[in-house]
Amino acid sequence: MGTPEGNVSGQGCPILYALSIIGQKWKLPLLWYLHERPTTRFNELKRRVPGISNLMLTKSLRELEGAGLVLRDQRDTVPPHVEYSLTARGEALLPALNELYSWGVEQMRLGADEAGAPAADRPAR
């Protein structure tokens, strides 16, 4: 696996590219919930992600589909039956998200520890 060398602030940076795909407010929760089941319907996702509007759910799912992370399966029935699932590319992202989650848990714990420490014991910022 490569390591960031040189350009980590421009168009050629893989980290910035990845964050441009998944870094919006609603995309991570959607990816997480899609991971939990083989297929998920639109209204089920809407219930699982508090505060998301129909417009933002549709936009986020379309962008994730366009990036090859989500598969949209529409069946020609009345009413229409649409299910979403992660593609192999979407599933491949999960180990990195799990690592990021673990890192975030540790940072939150360290932040709580620092907040409870006497001022003289806190690291300088």
UniProtKB/TrEMBL annotation:
The keyword DNA-binding applies. Keywords: DNA-binding, Transcription, Transcription regulation. SUPFAM superfamilies: Winged helix' DNA-binding domain (SSF46785). InterPro entries: HTH_HxlR (IPR002577), WH-like_DNA-bd_sf (IPR036388), WH_DNA-bd_sf (IPR036390). GO terms for molecular function: DNA binding. PROSITE patterns: HTH_HXLR. Pfam families: HxlR. This is Helix-turn-helix, HxlR type. It comes from Propionibacterium ruminifibrarum.
